[in-house]
Design goal:
Blueprint: E1 17-21, E2 24-27, H1 33-36, E3 44-50, H2 57-66, E4 71-78, H3 83-96, E5 104-105, E6 134-135, H4 138-148, E7 153-157, H5 162-170, E8 178-182, H6 201-204, H7 207-215, E9 219-222, H8 225-228, H9 235-242, H10 247-263, H11 280-285, E10 292-301, E11 307-309, E12 315-322, H12 325-337, H13 344-348
Parallel strand pairs: 3-4, 3-7, 4-5, 5-6, 7-8, 8-9, 9-12
Antiparallel strand pairs: 1-2, 10-11, 10-12
Length: 350
């Protein structure tokens, strides 16, 4: 997701019950159910479609994705132009994280082109050196993975949607075999918690593609600015990520420093706090909805990039409010800073 000139910031699991004595049942309270719930025996297959390399939150989301054992990452795919640049960022990050089992898809060769604010991190990186699989036609790879999967695939989309719209054009049946979880829109609140809804960047950048994706007959869950636009880390939470001695947070912070200096060479914000981490919420929603208040409502995507409530429009499930934002922040930090464990697919391949 891109900031657009502004500083931007699973299925629901019910709390279980514990039988303490015959006939005595205690409901378990608390806000950590996403962390307390046992990891599924079989992780959920997911694809990440991302405009990584514009705003920095995509990099945080990629790191979080790799730290979620509930999710089996089948493909990461750069979207919204800058195809080689985004593919290099994805490949180098995966290689740095020790996750070269994850294939990289090259997105559509469309505008914008060239590099973006994280270019310095990959200036000497050769995409052909990536030890894992690189698909020159990432859109076709997305289609093939969804259509061949024995289980429904969750497509996590955290950028504008030209790749996904193109995939639906080539093979409409992917919508019957996948769920869509996205960081898109602004329903009741805009950037920075404003009471005025905004044309959110991921929609505004390519409204036609978003209209096509939202019209497809798959299950759609989104985090609009109403929730994702409020996520930042500062204080001890941020310091824990900044100072963590393991590859994923180290790569995130290295990119954040480059991105921050590119935007303002004299600003040391990357030493003190995060920017708005919009896209991390979409990754979370692929696992759980416990920290959010979800609502099903009709949303109409306008040609100007607004997402307007409309009873006659396609119904989506949207995270419109936080039940416990601090609990989400704590969960995010815990996931990112957990010491890395050897990943089975990294050893055995796929």
């Amino acid at each position: 997701m891109k900031c657009d000139g502004l500083c931007r910031v699973g299925w629901s699991r019910l709390f279980g019950v514990m039988i303490l004595a015959a006939g005595a049942v205690l409901c378990v309270p608390g806000s950590w159910s996403a962390e307390k719930s046992s990891t599924p025996a079989k992780p959920i297959p997911v694809i990440l479609d991302t405009d990584i390399g514009d705003d920095i939150d995509d990099t945080w989301a990629l790191g979080l994705l790799l730290k979620c054992p509930e999710l089996d990452v089948k493909l990461v795919l750069g979207d919204y132009g800058r195809a080689q640049y985004r593919a290099k960022l994805l490949a180098k990050f995966l290689q740095t994280a020790g996750r070269t089992d994850v294939p990289v898809g090259i997105g559509l060769d469309i505008a914008p082109r060239g590099e973006g604010p994280q270019g310095a991190w990959v200036k000497d990186y050769d995409l052909s050196s990536y030890p894992g699989k690189v698909y020159p036609d990432g859109v076709q790879a997305l289609i093939d993975i969804i259509m061949s999967s024995k289980e429904p695939v969750v497509l996590i989309a955290i950028g504008p949607l030209p790749n996904v719209a193109a995939a639906l054009e080539r093979q409409p049946q992917i919508a019957q075999r996948a769920r869509f979880v996205g960081m898109h829109g602004s329903v009741h609140r805009g950037y920075g918690g404003s009471s005025t809804p905004a044309a959110e960047w991921n929609v505004k950048a390519d409204p036609k593609s978003c209209q096509k994706v939202f019209a497809a007959p798959w299950d759609i869950t989104i985090t609009p600015l109403d929730t994702c636009g409020l996520v930042t880390l500062d204080g001890d939470r941020y310091r824990r990520v900044r100072d963590a001695q393991n590859p994923v947070p180290s790569a995130i912070i290295a990119n954040y420093r480059i991105w921050s200096r590119h935007n303002n060479p004299t600003n040391d914000v990357a030493e003190r706090r995060s920017s708005v981490l919009f896209d991390t919420v979409a990754v979370y929603l692929a696992i759980s909805q416990d920290f959010c208040r979800m609502e099903r409502l009709g949303l109409r995507v306008t040609d100007q990039g607004f997402t307007v409530p409309d009873d006659s429009a396609r119904v989506v499930t949207a995270a419109l409010e936080w039940k416990n934002l601090d609990a989400f922040r704590d969960w995010l930090v815990q996931r990112l800073t957990t010491k890395p464990q050897p990943h089975p697919a990294s050893k055995s391949g796929r």
